[in-house]
């Protein structure tokens, strides 16, 4: 069984589209369809079916997808093991949007200068989603928010940074007291399904403030843009983003610093990519100390 065919099948299942799978693999949709038909012929079952404009797996397809991911990951690990350099090959990295908007671009640039033969593929998403992908061996490491449960001993956690909550206001706002600002202005709420949003909600509850909410969303950059436009104020984690820092807004520190979001990198303790991941951690630390 050709693992490249399995890879095409998995991408089709994940994206719901042969065209999207073909785009990611840089081949034609016809080639993807041919590879899936070859798998169906070899296994003597139908693996996918049309559902309107999308493609979805059959019951047999679901069973194959559940087991094929580990097979493809094992083959990738074998390729990595026999590679001449442990700092070459592919690193499958998961990252929350906050990391992508702040420190990760500089870290990857530094890593690239040290490991020019390394290819990094990045999957963005929420922390819980990325941790699940890591546990399923779909990713080698994830940069995420520290969850509120204990990691298994097979996992290794390294803290990158702690982010206190701040109050974002328009640069035109003259009032300095955060509590007064929260009581007198509409609130642009950070998504309460996210760790930072839950911390912001606890802060407001502890302060006994119930502002008028105008919108709730999960992007800190989008929130900052709305604050700049004068839509309201917002309590968010203090991320070090050049995009956000360039806006005409002010970050006001909050008196209660007990609500801090912890960001770090999570990986398998005995990962075959441990050399590359350790190098990535050192690149982050070097940039943080600079």
From TrEMBL:
GO terms for cellular component: cytosol. Signal peptide: none annotated. InterPro entries: HTH-type_LysR_regulators, LysR_HTH_N, LysR_subst-bd, WH-like_DNA-bd_sf, WH_DNA-bd_sf. One of its GO terms (molecular function) is DNA binding. Residues 1-58 form the HTH lysR-type domain. It comes from Orrella marina. Keywords: DNA-binding, Transcription, Transcription regulation. Belongs to the LysR transcriptional regulatory family. This is LysR family transcriptional regulator. Pfam families: HTH_1, LysR_substrate. The keyword Ligase does not apply.
